[in-house]
Amino acid sequence: MKLIRVQAGVYAVNCYIIYCEEKREGIIVDPGGDVDDILEFVKENDLDIKYLVLTHGHGDHIGGLKGLKEALDAKIAIHEADVEMLKDGNKNLSSQMLMGKVEVEPDIILKEGDIIEFGNEKAKVIHTPGHTLGGICLVIQDNIITGDTLFAGSIGRSDLYGGDFDTLIKSIKDKLMIYPDETKIFPGHGSPSTIGRERRGNPFLSNIQY
Ligand SMILES: [Zn+2]
Ligand SMILES: [Zn+2]
User: Fold this and answer.
1) What domains does the chain contain, in order, with CATH numbers?
2) How confident is the chain (210 residues) per 10-residue block, as mean pLDDT?
3) Which protein residues have their CB within 5 A of the ion that is ligand 1?
4) Quick one: which ligand is closest to 57's CA?
5) 111 and 121 in contact (C-beta within 8 Å)?
6) Who has the most CB within 10 Å: 44, 61, 122, 203?
């Protein structure tokens, strides 16, 4: 399994290209933009991208969806509770952002426990609401794509549409902190980290008893 980080779009969101090296099948998570660069990588590495998976519906994570879907014929997947956001430029905030209004119809509706398969790899969907209603994290081997739920040293905002601080903390505690310390995390913004480093050093999690 290979995991490549591309800082995509005007907001430099972490877009991840994840693929099975043997079967050359992959997924792209949170394509915020920079469609041409992503397509070049896909072509150079001879990849068949099956799905465009969204950790949530916010504008900074979805700007490259239309271009990639057209070019790659891949299916757009998002959690059921964020579908309304993806389809509404006001709810996904893109109408107020630099890339302009983005409204997209999903192909696949995800829920807790779903498995997304590509090549020999499997990504497990964990529903982690709190930043948005339908925020998800993806577990692939000992890696977790955490979207805007958990960052290195911080957590996502909970003051936007669908957000709730207590729900976010509960999601992180119940759904992410159950993984071993050495599990790597790949957030939607900023640097990678590990579950252990965040368990010990993340100021938002320090008052939680494990
Ligand atoms: Zn967000
Ligand atoms: Zn974001």
Assistant:
1) 2-201 (3.60.15.10)
2) 94 96 98 96 98 97 97 98 97 92 97 98 98 98 98 97 97 98 98 97 77
3) 58, 148
4) 1
5) no
6) 61
